[in-house]
Amino acid sequence: MSNTPSAYALPQDYKEQGRLSQQYTWMKALCGSQSPVPDRFSLDGSPKIIDIAAGTCSWILDVANVVKNKPHVDGTQDIGEQRAHLFACDIDMSKCPPRSVMEDLRIKLFSQDVTKPFPAEMEGTFDLVHMTLLVFALTTDGWKAALENCRKLLKPGGLLMLTEVDPIIYSSHKPPPPSEAPEHDPVNAMAGPTWRHKHNSIYTGAALRNGFIVGLTHRLPKMLQAASFSVLEFDRITVPVGKLCHEYRGFRGDSLAEFENISLENTDIMLDGLSRGMLKKNILEAPLGNLISTEEEMKQVLGEIYVGTRDEGSLGIMGVFVARAE
Ligand SMILES: C[S@@+](CC[C@H](N)C(=O)[O-])C[C@H]1O[C@@H](n2cnc3c(N)ncnc32)[C@H](O)[C@@H]1O
């Protein structure tokens, strides 16, 4: 299936903006790293760094905060030291901070569809490319084009940092399969009577309906290799939601207890956005095979998932990849 800008399945509104900003702190705790950049990447020597599909720009703002790229204006001349050359882009700029904020931090912001070629003068110039959570934006063809474009932006030996999730949830009784296991069984996850089947009919169903990849973290290593990257790191992280934040820890042992509510709100907003999108197109099913055709029915199903998620919690899968451009 080919990629079009309208393929993006999540809303572009203020609720989504809030969800993404909170999600950034949660994802950092899940990964357990203090620094926004990979441990093996040095911020010395004014590196050139870009955040693609930046959304609210949380990541590049974090990098700017670390490198302290503050302008120092003397009269009309900016004589501040440029400690890193920072760029951010997205297909839709509505969630980005105001331009004045970005300019103050010397982050160059521009509009860009990652599946389309970047400006030729940028090719082969970046030391680090960062891209996170395009699972509800890119089809297989979209990923192929996006990874090619990321590689073209990088200098030989430059790094791509990619964080993605598989759009499917599991439970503490039936935890996510290990990475070496075969890919997920989406039909089994969506067809059944429980709130979890209904959750997956929306979450996994939205991915399947749009031609997105449910086993994304399984497939990315091969997709990266096909785009001439060497995969240097792949951390597969279990993502607890709700009460399970008290039982599971982040990848490096951090407590996730403080994210109980954030993880629940994140799930509510995302399922609300996905189900509204599918209801509009008359393709909302929950569980699989049961068409939901009114807002009232949708709210009832979301209510059931809301209670189930709070009573039992859920588990997801996140993959953090660091790959080198060859
Ligand atoms: C789930 S958000 C993640 C944003 C950010 N990376 C983060 O982790 O907070 C996905 C972002 O991808 C952007 N997007 C969707 N399709 C895109 C495309 N083809 N090219 C570039 N950005 C795209 C959306 O506008 C949205 O801001």
From TrEMBL:
It comes from the Eukaryota. SUPFAM superfamilies: S-adenosyl-L-methionine-dependent methyltransferases (SSF53335). Coiled coil: none annotated. Residues 102-161 form the Methyltransferase type domain. GO terms for molecular function: S-adenosylmethionine-dependent methyltransferase activity. This is Methyltransferase type 11 domain-containing protein. It comes from Gymnopus androsaceus JB14. The lineage of its organism: Eukaryota, Fungi, Dikarya, Basidiomycota, Agaricomycotina.
